[in-house]
TrEMBL record:
Stretches assigned to coiled coil: none
Domain of life (superkingdom): Eukaryota
Key word Glycoprotein present: no
UniProt protein name: Cullin family profile domain-containing protein
Native source species: Hydnum rufescens UP504
Gene3D superfamilies: Cullin Repeats, Cullin, Chain C, Domain 2, Winged helix-like DNA-binding domain superfamily/Winged helix DNA-binding domain
Alphabetically ordered keywords of this record: Isopeptide bond, Ubl conjugation
SUPFAM superfamilies the record matches: Cullin homology domain, Cullin repeat-like, Winged helix' DNA-binding domain
Domain Cullin family profile: 434-657
GO biological process assignments: ubiquitin-dependent protein catabolic process
GO MF entry, a single one: ubiquitin protein ligase binding
Family from the record: Belongs to the cullin family.
Pfam families linked to this entry: Cullin, Cullin_AB, Cullin_Nedd8
Length: 786
């Protein structure tokens, strides 16, 4: 029977091609095509319709119907269909040429696909499996159905290109799209399908999340699908996306489960984890979810799921977690964790809270350093280390740029840089004057020590690190005064490591910070002229060739309080002769001797050998008392012989008898010098070096010098406030009280930040001195008095 049908189909094909093909082709070329192909068929072919109608009704229709039934039956082999795929393809081609039969063929295909989809889903509906097991069966059913749809698409290609193409406006779909639509309609009817699919998705994602939570699989290993569940889910997502069922059958289920799962996890983890560990936990969880989404879900749903994780785990807790987590990471210098925290807070739009916590931590750290009076000596070193770490954190963790740079990258988050700057400024303000003073002393120590084997670049970086703190203090005048005093002492005591470095640093300070630093260059000019004058004095008085002086101009150097000391006769003679020589050369000048800055190189003979001791003038005067075989002196005797102030003498004796190089012996032993102590020349003193420098308390700043400097700063500020008030009123002639205060703050702001109470006090004082007067009608208005 199959052979007979094949022969008849072949006969039909021959009948159409042999008897009518030439005329049909020729006629077709002359006929204009219209949207309906049936109208375009030549009249003689349409007349032939009645002759082939019986062939279609009796042979082709049953052939196609039975073949479709076999192809769409899961229990039968499609190769057992009565017609081959080629025969079915040709039969479809013939039937599409017939207007009535095309529609009947489309309806037959639609009915068969609907029955097939229903049978598959009905079978799944009756299965006892649940969860992923049922989901695996569901995907096998769909994959088989999709495979048959592809086969049907190939067989009925002419139906898609002919009948369907010209009837799209009537809702006709290609065979493959029609089959998917019928599957989708059948899938949405019973509610149990949704629950089965939901159970499978929940089982899969819960199992993966639990496994990662327990540490069984790292984030990087999530692409390894050892159970095969991931492959089923990926196929399911592809199927649901193709069927336009993804939002209802997958995304909604996934998002709802995500909220429930992480809500429960949040409740547990916030109890068992510290704030910092919880922040890292949230960051890790989000990374895991993003990786899972990238491997299993379409891109358009990533944002919905990740927002669900963010909302549930972290978004409402960012403010409470920020401060303790920042404190933990910053104190541990954990930059990678800070970077994770930044990315986490960025994605939940909570960077303002993170910045506030960061700023608060840095401020507290700065305040702790600058207010720790017991560690003033290490204040600047600690601040430099803190600033270096903060700068690096801003760059590496918070995507910013270094504090103090001028270039702004619009792609970077510069708010953290500004937060760090504000934190340092606020921290410095908690202790007036001292940070600026300690900066000057830190630089003084660096200039004394010099490069010490470091390259020029390394030394400049070290110095620049200290200068980087300059912008955070408002006490610029304090820094300048202390630095200039320290510079003067370095130069006079010859403690500076390099004059070239000193000069270049002064130029840098004057250009970049305060023009008044240019006065330091005048110090070097004085030293040069002093050396020239000393050479002239030595030529005139060769007997004083071992006596050298430095003549300083008061305008370029700090003022030094005179000290009382009784010098040995040979020293006093040299001083008197130099004074006479200088006055004869410079009759309009007067010399005031600053003995506190004098130095002496003293050749001393010990039983172990001869040594050259580099001493201060006070130390040398004390040591010279032990000449002529004087081995022991009381403190009172030394005080009477030298005339040195009592406290100063105690410091001097401490440096000689209690320091590292003990050229004197104190009896009885002890850390302090008392009025009843006795001092002996140390006959047992030994040292490998011939030239020995004995450090003195004078090299460091004494309490009296510090007090004098502080007093000078207060007086200098008073003078600047007075001059600012007078200068402003002279230009404006009259101003209200508040306007005058604001103008004064702006005028002196580059030197120091004045206290309003001090400004008011200076205004009242100038009113008393009749530089200003109050308006008689308005006491809040001031007039300048010429």
């Amino acid at each position: 029977m199959l052979i007979l049908r094949s022969l008849r189909l072949g006969k039909l094909r021959a009948l159409m091609t042999k008897r009518h093909h030439p005329k049909v082709r020729a006629k077709a070329k002359s006929v204009k095509m219209t949207p309906d192909p049936w109208v375009s068929i030549p009249r003689n072919l349409r007349c032939f319709e009645s002759r082939i109608q019986s062939v279609f009704t009796n042979e082709l229709a049953p052939l196609i119907t039975k073949s479709i039934a076999i192809i769409l039956n899961r229990e039968m082999d499609p190769s057992s269909a009565p017609g081959s795929y080629e025969q079915l393809y040709e039969a479809c081609n013939i039937m599409v040429s017939l207007k009535q039969e095309s529609e009947d063929l489309y309806k037959a295909v639609e009915k068969s696909l609907k029955l097939c989809a229903g049978r598959i889903l009905d079978d799944l509906y009756r299965r006892n499996e649940t969860g992923m097991a049922w989901l695996a069966l569901f995907m096998k059913g769909w994959e088989w159905y999709e495979n048959r749809l592809n086969l049907m698409h190939s067989i009925f290609l002419h139906l898609d290109r002919g009948y369907v193409h010209y009837h799209r406006d009537k809702g006709k779909l290609p065979v493959r799209d029609l089959g998917r639509l019928l599957w989708r309609d059948s899938l949405q009817k019973p509610i149990s399908f949704h629950s089965h699919i939901s159970a499978g998705i929940v089982e899969w994602v819960t199992q993966e999340r639990d496994q990662l939570l327990g540490g069984g699989t790292s984030t990087m290993d999530m692409d390894m699908d050892q159970t095969g569940a991931r492959a089923v889910i990926q196929s399911l997502v592809a199927h649901l996306s193709l069927s336009m069922l993804y939002p209802f059958f997958f995304e909604d289920i996934y998002v709802n489960n995500t909220r429930q799962y992480f809500a429960a996890e949040r409740s547990k983890k916030q109890v068992t984890l510290s704030p910092s560990d919880y922040v890292l936990h949230c960051a890790t969880r989000l990374e895991q979810e993003e990786l899972r989404l990238s491997q299993c879900c379409p891109e358009f749903s990533w944002g919905t799921v990740t927002r669900a994780v963010e909302d549930t785990l972290i978004r409402n807790d960012t403010q409470t977690l920020a401060a303790p987590a920042i404190a933990k990471f910053m104190s541990g210098k954990d930059v990678p964790s800070l970077s994770k925290m930044y990315r986490l807070y960025s994605r939940v739009q909570s960077l303002s809270g993170l910045r506030d916590a960061f700023k608060s931590y840095v401020r507290e750290a700065v305040v702790a350093i600058v207010t720790d009076t017991a560690r003033d000596a290490s204040m600047i070193t600690s601040l430099i280390d803190l600033k270096s770490f903060v700068d690096q954190t801003v760059v590496d963790a918070f995507q910013g740029r270094n504090v103090g740079t001028t270039r702004v990258d619009q792609d970077k988050d510069t708010q953290f840089e500004y937060a760090a700057k504000d934190a340092f400024e606020s921290g410095f303000a908690q202790r007036k004057n001292k940070p600026a003073e300690m900066m000057a002393k830190y630089l003084d120590l660096e200039m004394r020590q010099g490069q010490r084997g470091a390259s020029d670049q390394e030394f400049q970086e070290k110095v620049n690190a200290a200068l980087g703190l300059y912008g955070f203090t408002t006490d610029h005048d304090v820094f300048r005064i202390f630095y200039m005093r320290a510079l003067a002492k370095r130069l006079l005591l010859q403690r500076s490591a390099s004059d070239d470095i000193e000069k270049s640093f002064l130029v840098k300070l004057s250009k970049g910070f305060d023009p008044e630093f240019e006065k330091g260059l005048k110090m070097f000019a004085d030293l040069e002229s002093s050396r020239e004058f000393a050479e002239k004095f030595h030529r005139t008085c060769p007997e004083h060739s071992n006596f050298t002086t430095m003549v300083l101009q008061p305008s370029a150097w700090p003022t030094y309080s005179p000290v009382t000391i009784r010098l040995p006769p040979f020293m006093q003679t040299s001083i008197d002769n130099f004074t006479s020589f200088y006055c004869s050369e410079r009759k309009d000048r007067k010399l005031l001797w600053a003995h506190s800055l004098g130095t002496v190189t003293l050749i001393t003979r010990f039983p172990s050998g001869e040594k050259e001791l580099s001493l201060s003038l006070h130390q040398a005067v004390v040591m010279l008392l032990f000449e002529d075989n004087v081995n022991k002196l009381k403190f009172s005797d030394i005080l009477e012989e030298t005339g040195i102030e009592k406290n100063e003498l105690k410091r001097t004796l401490q440096s000689l008898a209690l320091g590292k190089k003990r050229v004197l012996v104190k009896k009885p032993p002890g850390k302090d010098v008392n009025a009843n102590d006795e001092f002996l020349f140390n006959l047992k003193f030994e040292d490998e070096k011939r030239n020995i420098r004995i450090n003195t308390i004078q090299v460091q700043e004494t309490a009296e010098e510090h007090q004098a400097t502080s007093k000078y700063i207060a007086i200098d500020r008073t003078m600047h406030l007075d001059s600012a008030v007078v200068r402003i009123m002279k230009g404006k002639k009259k101003l209200t009280y508040q306007d005058l205060i604001n103008a004064v703050i702006e005028a002196v702001g580059k030197r120091f930040h004045p206290v309003v109470a001090d400004i008011k006090k200076r205004i009242d004082d100038l009113v008393e001195k009749e530089y200003l007067r109050r308006d008689e009608a308005d006491t809040n208005l001031f007039h300048y008095v010429a």
